[in-house]
Amino acid sequence: MASATGIPESRNQNEGRGEDEPLLGRAGDASQQEDQGLQFNFVIGTAVIAQVGIWILAATIWASVFVQPLMLFSAHPLLNSAGILLTTQAILLLQPTHTPKQKKQGTNIHAVLNLTSILTLIAALVVIEYNKIAHNGAHFESPHAILGLITYILFFLQAIVGIAQYYTPGLFGSTENAKSIYKYHRMSGYVLLILSLVTIAAATQTGFNKNILHIQLWAVVAASVITLVGVLPRIKKQKMGL
Q: For the whole prediction, is pTM greater than 0.90?
């Protein structure tokens, strides 16, 4: 098709901007440019909003912990919040990729970030369980504890499936079979992020927080909403099969 000047228009005006549209915005608004490094993915589009939210959340938790005398239990909220921070970065890094090279590089770093997050979360679980055993405390009774256990399990399963489908697709019968469940892995990743934020919010209602840390529920909810406002609009419709 020719333009008003008589010069043919490019068949792909959005080349380098990505073929997929985000949930909000235009094609390319949340896509990595051809000549951009992966580091820019942390701030492309609404990622800046997500960064503000997740760093406020982490800073709120860390500040509340460090103003109190440190103890073994202190590692639990510090490690958990660090794990969710890493998971958010892993999501933000991979979302804008769209070329085969970008996807390969992004997936490798995504895997490293999430593996580090899993190890951090496992350490947080070990700390709280050791602390409960040492003090003869009740296990998995509060909503926070129950949600936390579910979240830990789902994180582990999410990591196992993600690694298997990408690095050992033969376990699914073929590469095509493995690729066919990519969208479910993505969907469950977003659900798991939301569940993690809900679990943190539930932690504000525990006795330890009310008596010692004093992290406010409204602060956690506000930071979580800001984080999701930054993350969710960058979801690529085509990657989700929409």
A: no
